[in-house]
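Q: I have 341 residues here and want to know how they pack in 3D. Can you give me a structure?
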Amino acid sequence: MASIVALGAVTVGINLPSSRAELRELGLVPGSDSMITVERMEEIRRTLQKNHGTLPQPTSGGSVANTADFLARAGISCGFMGVGGNDTFGRLFAANCERASLKFLSELEDGAITGYDFYLYDENDVRTIILTHGANALLSPVRLDLEAIERSELVLLDGIALSFGPESEAAMLRCVQAAEMAAVPFVLALAGIEIVDGYRDFFNTFAPNAQMVAGNLEQVAVLVGLRPTASLEEVRIKLAQTSIDAIVTLDADGAFARFDDEECLMPTQKIEAVDSTGAGDNFLAAFLMARRQGLTVRQALAVGNSVAGEVIQFQGARLPLSFDVHKFMVEAMQNAKGRDN
């Protein structure tokens, strides 16, 4: 039995140097972030292979999948549900789960293409992201392991899963219902502002019931009905008028949390980032683990900042497999408790 069960995207990411000329040739806008069809993605992949030869080895990604990976490597029994294809990318994703001691609770789908992303960096280090849902679009209630949800201690849901396909919102709803019926708390990770705004009924209904929601300032601003550019002070005031408990990541400015009537802003040290991808995903994992170990909200925010600061010093959304996540977490939690004594 997995003590934490996560539902999210089965996807892999490929980091690749590019150029503005190549991006224009591909019909992409530098610095953009777009979701495209599998057919269009395969067309771009073939062009990139023609231009670059063998592409770099993909790494597993997906927001909540990154969170679950960190938790498993930190020593927490954790399972992951999602829909991937029984292809090279899908088998790679499953193998990465196994290496991290993360239980993959789903079956790979024969004949389906696993979702994947390209992170294209031009000569000015501007990042252009293209994504395709692929097999994730097949997510439906019948593909869920409801028994795993009901027997878990915590369910972690990725908001982006709402947008995967025609039955994905029903699958998310079924997850929440199964968790609530079994009295299992759930955490709701927010997604892009278009998804938060586009599935407002779901978020309005279930965000107040969640143990907490987690997202960046822009996402939380939209969640509480503000413009994406709202300040932290505006978001703080609006959150205080709701029953939503939340952690809000602030990039280089640290993180903010509101739980019941307690509010806490935890700045962080300025660190030169090699790659900021996945910082928030791993922050959430560290925060959850610290709270499970009895740390205060303030201490858990400090632990999350430490982990995020470490993640951004490496390429990709996850710490290298050679990195001792459990040891680092033990030290980070000891340091956080020591600073408060």
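Q: Anything worth noting?
A: The chain has 13 helices and 14 strands. The CA atoms of residues 218 and 229 lie 6 Å apart.
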